[in-house]
Amino acid sequence: MRTTPRHARPKPRSLRIGILVTAGAVTTTALSLATAASGDPSAPRVTQLGLGPGYLTAGQRASARLEISADRCVTADRVTVAVRDDAGRNLDFPGAESGVRLCPSGHTFTSGAREFPAGSYTMFGSWQDTDGVWHPLPSITLKVGATRKTEPEPEPTPEPAREPRGGGPSWEPSGAWKLRFSDEFEGDSLDTSKWNTGWFGTGVTGPVNSAEDACYDARNVGVSGGALHLELTGEDASCKGKARRHTGAHVNTMGKFSYSYGAVEYRARVPSTDGEVANWPALWDTGEFWPRDGETDTMEGLSGEVCSYWHATDTDRGHCPSGDLTGWHTFGHRWEPGKITWFYDGKPVHTQTSGVVGSPHYLVMQNTQGSFGGPTLVPADLQVDWVRVWTE
Predict the structure, then answer these.
(1) Is the pLDDT at 165 greater than 60, yes or no?
(2) What is the pLDDT of residue 150?
(3) Angle value at C-alpha 105, between 109 and 79, nearest 5 degrees
(4) What is the rounded average pLDDT for all residues in the chain?
(5) Could you report the per-residue pLDDT of 243-254, keeping only the tens digit for each?
(6) pLDDT, tens digit, for every residue of 359-375?
(7) φ, ψ (nearest 5 deg) of residue 245
(8) Which tens digit of pLDDT belongs to each residue from 218-244?
(9) Which tens digits make up the pLDDT trace of 23-44?
């Protein structure tokens, strides 16, 4: 039975630093601070799954969203999201929720809306037990940028694409490779003989997983100036029976092209703000039966960084190299039996040898936002100059 890709619940990073702080979320296995401090083994174990947003624009009204769960069902008298400025003043989101039932299945609290002046704030969720004790949860930094122009500045036109004239990827341009698939995104429309514009459907579809805050709309996919444009907007949409806070874009080659072993390379320009990857853009491939067939994230914007990951039944590993995130870059990977090597601008950055399988994969490109994304920036494009797949 086909299952939905988890698409980057980055376990290695949360283990590495204890708390994965993203501009739109916090993922942690820590207890709420007050519960942990009490040392009471009978106290409920409350886990914060997500907190956002982590980035706003001054003058923009927005709500906070807190995702929490408990190891057993317990009633919280109130749940709220608090905000403190540098002087310690309270600037909390309005609308605390009362009589909340916290269970292992999780609960999502959405506050009322408010706006903030430009600056940096400490933001944290908190729940109150029936004895009146407040339990603060891990905090994140809420960044509020200056008011943006009504009309965003136009994106630079991409440099001319390299023509595929044989050879191979940038890290090994030998004649031993055979070009199996390519799209240079010339002209003014998407080649629908190669790409689908939705996730298991057409029109408004998605999301890929429960951590995403956006639907996908085929109208947000465009080709112009020699590049593919996948736009994320702040428009509300409804998909899979739920209202979402953003509308993104998604294309894939499911049913039209797949490959096993070889090399994939993209030339792309990720959305960015203040030196971080904005939103949750991704260039990846996966099989028909996830996670058994595996998932290769060639490039994924996680917590404001450029990352690469391999996800499979028993393996969830990745790497986030540092470097310049602005402008155009190449992202690629080489997939061999039992081994995947990722490349950033033609240089190897990460190798995976555990749990690698060889089931056929199709290509996926998307621009969305959610619990593991970076600062929210709308409207914003993920631009792709070209994508190429070779086999030996």
Answers:
(1) no
(2) 37
(3) 25
(4) 83
(5) 998 999 999 999
(6) 999 999 999 999 889 99
(7) -85, -15
(8) 999 999 999 999 999 998 999 988 999
(9) 333 333 333 333 333 445 567 8
Cα gap 205→192, rounded to integer Å: 17
Label each residue of the chain as H, E or C: CCCCCCCCCCHHHHHHHCEEECCCCEEECCCCHHHHHHCCCCCCCEEEEEEECCEEECCCCEEEEEEEEECCCEEEEEEEEEEECCCCCECCCCCCEEEEEECCCCEEEEEEEECCCCEEEEEEEEEECCCCCEEEEEEEEEEEECCCCCCCCCCCCCCCCCCCCCCCCCCCCCCCCEEEEEECCCCCCCCCCCCECCCCCCCEECCCCCCECEEEEHHHEEEECCEEEEEEECCCEEECCEEECEEEEEEECCCCCCECCEEEEEEEECCEECCEECCEEEEEEECCCCCCCCEEEEEEEECCEEEEEEECCCCEEEECCCCCCCCCEEEEEEEECCEEEEEECCEEEEEECCCCCCCCEEEEEEEECECCCCCCCCCEEEEEEEEEEEEC
Print burial letters for 211-229: b (CB count within 10 Å at least 16), e (below 16): bbbbbbbbebbbbebbbbb
CA of 93: how far to CAs of 8, 62, 367, 372, 379, in Å? Answer: 29, 9, 28, 22, 24
